[in-house]
Design brief:
Blueprint: H1 16-38, H2 52-55, H3 58-63, H4 66-86, H5 92-121
Helix pairs in contact: 1-5, 4-5
Length: 132
């Protein structure tokens, strides 16, 4: 994959980009549904906006860019921490929703790390014109 400037993106091998994209979209849908329909903090809460930074990763995951995997590996920990904080809520529905959020975010974390490792182990073709 290259852009007009000649820079070539390092790609993550299949199936990791597709799996990460499915998990990321699942987190988007789950987070929006949780904060708007299932158990909103209060009526009219805007807490569903917390999942919008995840949407920024969709184009990079669709193309399988290693760079997207790398910055997403830092962002995902915010969602893991949020799930861990909300899992001790007094409301049982919120605890179960937090557990689902924790599972999704940890699965995405494992997928990101496995994809990053696979991309690092994959040999790069020798190209004298490519930047290093």
């Amino acid at each position: 994959m290259s852009d007009p400037s000649g820079f070539r993106y390092r790609l993550v091998p299949s199936p990791w980009p597709r799996l990460a994209l499915v998990l990321l979209v699942s987190m988007l849908v789950y987070g929006i549904a949780w904060e708007t329909l299932v158990d909103p903090l209060r009526p009219g809460s805007w807490l569903w906006l917390k999942v919008l930074p995840l949407a920024l990763a969709i184009p990079g995951l669709r193309q399988g860019r290693l760079y997207t995997f790398q910055w997403l590996s830092l962002l995902i920990w915010l969602y893991v921490c949020e799930a861990l904080v909300r899992i001790i809520a007094p409301d049982s529905l919120e605890r179960w929703l937090s557990l689902g959020w924790l599972v999704l975010s940890l699965l995405l974390t494992v997928c990101i790390f496995a994809g990053t490792k696979a991309a690092r182990l994959k040999p790069r073709p020798l190209d004298p014109d490519a930047r290093r």
